[in-house]
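Researcher: Good morning. I'm working through a list of sequences from a screen, and I'd like to move beyond sequence-only analysis. For each chain I'm collecting a predicted structure so we can compare shapes side by side. This is the next one on the list. No need for commentary yet; just the structure.
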Amino acid sequence: MDDMQKITVMVVDDTPANLKLLEEMLSGEGYRAIMFPSGIMALKAAVRNPPDLILLDIMMPEMDGFETCRRLKEDPATQEIPVIFLSALNDTESKVKAFAMGGVDYVTKPFQFSEVRTRVETHISLRRSQIQLKRQNQHLEEMIQEKVREISDSQLATIFAVSKLAESRDDETGWHIERTRIFCRDLAQKLADTSSYAVDISPAFIENVYHASPLHDIGKVGITDNILLKPGRLTAEEFEIMKTHTLIGASTLQTVYQKYLGNAFLSMGIDIALSHHEKWDGGGYPDGLAGEQIPLSARIMAIADVYDALRSKRPYKEPFSHEKSSAIIREGAGRHFDPLVVEAFISLEPELADIPGSAWLKEEEEEDVCV
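Model: Good morning. Structure tokens for this chain:
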């Protein structure tokens, strides 16, 4: 009986003789027996220290066994405890009601202890099996979730690698997508904390914008080097070709999305790739969207992308200082950028220096900039 020593059986009966008899019998079988003369006392004790099984009388003053069982099953702390009714009531209606209240078994008084012992052993064994099955299912679920995370992480790493490959063609430092993804995440979090956009920004939105932002310029793989890496201003014709990188990127991602319909990450990636060059006043490209017609993720990306472009050395410009770059962002509020996103940007300015790779090597200013 060594494995029974930890098993606690609660007995609830208003007849002292029944309590004494059951305590002796259960203790003799190696169970820990705890006795209560009323349902009210038993409920309080069961919540504090849930037993493994309850033997419950029906006819008791103040609160009968039916009500006691009903309350046990309503409380998350006690609802899984198996309840065996012990009662002198032998009519079918009482037995049906006992099972309806959540009882697992019904023993009629006067009882033979051999019957009670067998019923207790059976339901303790079932309860242990249920607990073990629950643990196994939980472990299996954790294993499945871990495998899903591994697959998801692998997919995200592959997407990030492709984004890095596209970036390597026109970013000398290799830090652009790392900086902008962190900046997008921080901007989204700030908007969630301090703006009216909080209702639109969930933790999943913040997570997706972090992982999807590296896709913003993936369409540049379709732009030739003589345009992408040109060290001076683009001609009007060249600029029209450059603008197609938004369509190339969105179209490519849309093809993938068709195989994974409903994928929020890919959907946001399409929005960002297509619309991060749209402007608040409608003067951007490729669709001339204005205001809140522009997806919020793309409005966030627009500021992150422009700020990083201003601070970075490019074939057509030297890096700008933080002060001048910030001033350009501020001046663009209501024209180029969403004013609320600019407000979030302003509140994040002190933290910009902490973004990995943000130690731009030069602070020289150049009046002529193309972003």
